Amino acid sequence: MAPRIDGGWLQLWCVDSVDAESFYAKDRSPDQRAARHLAYERYLLDEVVPAIRAENDVPFLIAAGTSFGATHAAMLVTRHPGVARKAVCLSGAYAVSRWLDGSADAYFLDPLAFLPGLTEERYLAPLRETEIVIATGELDPNVEESKRLAAVLQEKGVPADLHLWQGWAHDWPFWKEMVDVFL
Fold this sequence. Notes:
single chain, alpha/beta, 8 helices, 4 strands, globular
């Protein structure tokens, strides 16, 4: 990846998450966890994305992440089609409702919940313009969620490619290889 960065073809913006204050915060109510994630999402949309666009005149934005970062990338492009032109989701867990324990917002945060019922063209049209790469290990504990996400996106006409790597593949050595292939 270094040659692409050094050559000016790729610029990385690494944004930390607030998962310890949202999805993983079992000391908070499900609605508080969802609200914290939604505030984080607003931060991405209202501050991070505009800062990236101000710094770069290239409109091609890629949302990428590993593990729960992949979950965030998938949520960003499916909940806000058109924000990024590509998503690279490596070893994600996409059934996010399990961390929200019945929150009223759980359905709309969970791509495996809301995507099957999505019929509005104002969302589907830009989503179909988004290339989505889903890569994970065959033995990853969330491999079935990766398969389901790819399938539901493909059913909606979204260019989503599923790549299953041998073994577990839920660790940095694998992600470094995956990034070289998919980013």
